[in-house]
Amino acid sequence: MDGVDLEIRRGEFFSLLGPSGCGKTTLLRLLAGFETPDAGRVLIGGKDMAGVPPYERPVNTVFQNYALFPHMTVAGNIAFGLRMKGLPQGEIRKKVAWALELVDLLGLEGRYPRELSGGQKQRVALARALVLEPQVLLLDEPLSALDLKLRQELRVELMQLQRRLGTTFVFVTHDQEEALVMSDRIAVMRAGRVEQVGLPDEVYERPKNRFVADFLGRSNFLPARPHPLGAETPLGPLRLKSPLEREALLVIRPEKIRLYPKGATPPRENLVVAQVEEIVYTGAENQYYLRAGEVRLLAYTLNQDLQEPGSEEFAYGEEVICYLPPENLVVIHE
Amino acid sequence: MNEAATPRQRLLRVLVTVGPGGLWLLLFVLLPTLLVLLASLMRRGPYGELLGPLGLHNYLRLLEAPYLEAFAQSLWVGALATLLAALLGYPLAFYIARHPRRDLLLLLLLIPFFTNFLIRVYAWLVLLQKEGLLNALLLAFGLGPYAFYPSFAAVILATVYTFLPFFVLPVYASVERVDWQLLEAAYDLGARPFRAFLHAVLPQTYPGLFAGSVLVFIPAMGTFVVADLLGAGRVVLIGNLIQQQFGLTRDWPFGAALSVFLMAFVLLALYLYRRLQGERGLEDLV
């Protein structure tokens, strides 16, 4: 960890996004109190957490592999934290019932973890943490062990839960789509550093550096030098919103590149003729791997009505005209 | 595997895989046990031979005071030795399992087994007797000499010493498989260290604790050699009685009845313990 300075707002769904080994889990463990910082401070609700052990922090964790107690029932697992707090029996029962309903597990309270599906275990882990009404809920890749369909369902449920309870969620994930879909704000991390913090669309549309642009979604990169029009690139001069003053990297997302068949009448500037090398059909979109001279480009077109502009289909080897809109060319200075 | 095996082929497969072991068990476990059971129902002849008719008379004799006392003392020695082995062995198993050189520590734990059991018991005798090493050491400090041997304490000491590894090994195996994330989960949910251990780690080691207790308790109840040598007649275990019947007294039927009783008791105890564990789970008891 190096120079991490983050402020997470109350009631926010905040994601720590990065490849494995980037330190996102370590950061979460620092919040939970399982690790102690060599330098720097952790404040929760304005209070310095130095020397505060995990069992006294106002946070609870949903672990990656759930870490349910195998010898306790669902109700036993959910009641555990309440029992540790020494609440009276009646109150524990009431809160457990509330939590069971919250995560839609009523009727399963007598089951043992080994008798539950992955998604149900996930809900127990969630209920066990939320029943303690933490100031901050820490989630360590809680969906990564589930299959795609279930993951997508639980994403929505988690978001609804968070909005309903107003609890601050700190969510660790390596799945960029998950982070974009769920978060209020995202911190993109690499090698123990925070590369960029921002709203999902900020981080996606205005990546601050090559790593963020590459890790979050896919990007085309063009080295660029100053040019009167905007920038000089291997594709020729391109117009930008404002001309470059020094060498930079231009980034454009594949879905921002507009493709036109030869003979169409596209805008007059920022056009490149390219040849289709590969087509990947993903259902919702077509992905075209293009080559323009020495430069490879990736462009997506939506799989909509064939008559709509921007959703034409092209064949292998066909020449297409690519339009790179100036407002979608993001300038990165490294 | 061939799906359409003829009954003969199937029989052959069973015989080849289970056959040798099964035959061994049949000849050297089941058959002798049945013989002991039969003998326990017979009578001792004037020259120690086995005579009919069959009856339960030997089992009725078990209810006489000296035998009940020996049985009670066996239970006491077994329970005490198991408790002490647990107190010493449980933390030791954790220490070994979490040590970077655990292979070496395990070897050290097993080194005593390289020497014959009898010789090790005699070694305790040499250490503990009035002119022994321990007293020599104490005398050098102006203390003693004390009669450490023969005594009940000496019997317990040597019993715990002998069976301690049998406790440590199964617990060690459990500890190695412990999911330590559960400990973090317990902390996270507000459990202080002791309670976190109690609720998150201890239950995971129940199988090891159970196996270790059984492996210490059962032999400790019957080790007549230790009781004989270090108790010198003061400690009479059920094992000593059995040995006497088959040796000195030559009353095989009664010795057989004692053996059957001991076996039945152990099996019943195991069964009850299993039932208890299965139904409630030990964590409710603590």
Automatic annotation (TrEMBL), chain B:
This is Spermidine/putrescine transport system permease protein PotB. Belongs to the binding-protein-dependent transport system permease family. CysTW subfamily. It comes from Thermus aquaticus. The gene is potB. The keyword Lipid metabolism does not apply. Its main location: membrane. It is a multi-pass membrane protein. The chain crosses the membrane at residues 12-41, 75-97, 104-127, 147-173, 209-232, 252-273. GO terms for cellular component: plasma membrane. PANTHER family: INNER MEMBRANE ABC TRANSPORTER PERMEASE PROTEIN YDCU-RELATED, INNER MEMBRANE ABC TRANSPORTER PERMEASE PROTEIN YDCU-RELATED-RELATED. GO terms for biological process: transmembrane transport.
